[in-house]
């Protein structure tokens, strides 16, 4: 698990390689892969995470903190 639904957001993520599953209320709603990103809504709006994202296979991520994102 990379981020959990409802937690405070403190980073933005870009997938360099691998696949991640996105779940809302325990139901998988999307699969993300190379070049896709997640985590921006919590940083832009100071809102809790809207979904849980977990790696589905070995995954390499780029992580950007809130200040760098801004």
Describe this structure in words.
14% of the residues lie in helices and 43% in strands. Strand 2 and strand 3 (27-32) form a beta hairpin. It starts with 10 loop residues before the first strand and ends with a helix. It is mainly beta and 70 residues long. The protein has 2 helices and 6 strands; from the N terminus they run ββββαββα. It has helices spanning 40-45, 66-69; strands spanning 11-17, 20-24, 27-32, 37-38, 52-55, 60-65. It has a 3-stranded antiparallel beta sheet. It has a 3-stranded antiparallel beta sheet with strand order 3-2-5, with no helix packed on it.
Which regions have little confidence, pLDDT < 50, spanning 5+ residues?
A: none
Trace the largest sheet across and list its strands: 4-1-6
Q: Strand percentage, roughly? A: 35-45%
Alpha-carbon Rg, integer: 11 Å
Overall form: flat
User: What is the CA-CA span between the terminal residues?
Assistant: 25 Å
Count of helical regions: 2
Helix fraction, binned, reads 10-25%
Q: Give me the strand/helix succession.
A: EEEEHEEH
Number of strands: 6
Mean pLDDT: 94
What would you call the structural class?
Answer: mainly beta
- Largest sheet data: 3 strands, antiparallel
Entry keywords:
three-stranded antiparallel sheet, flat, mainly beta
Describe how the helices and strands are arranged.
Blueprint: E1 11-17, E2 20-24, E3 27-32, E4 37-38, H1 40-45, E5 52-55, E6 60-65, H2 66-69
Antiparallel strand pairs: 1-4, 1-6, 2-3, 2-5
């Amino acid at each position: 698990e990379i981020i959990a639904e409802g937690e405070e957001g403190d980073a933005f993520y870009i997938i360099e390689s691998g696949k991640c599953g996105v779940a809302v209320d325990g139901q998988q709603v999307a699969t993300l892969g190379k070049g896709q990103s997640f985590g921006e809504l919590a940083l832009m709006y100071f809102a809790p995470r809207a979904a849980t994202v977990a790696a589905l296979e070995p995954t390499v991520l780029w992580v950007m903190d809130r200040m760098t994102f801004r």
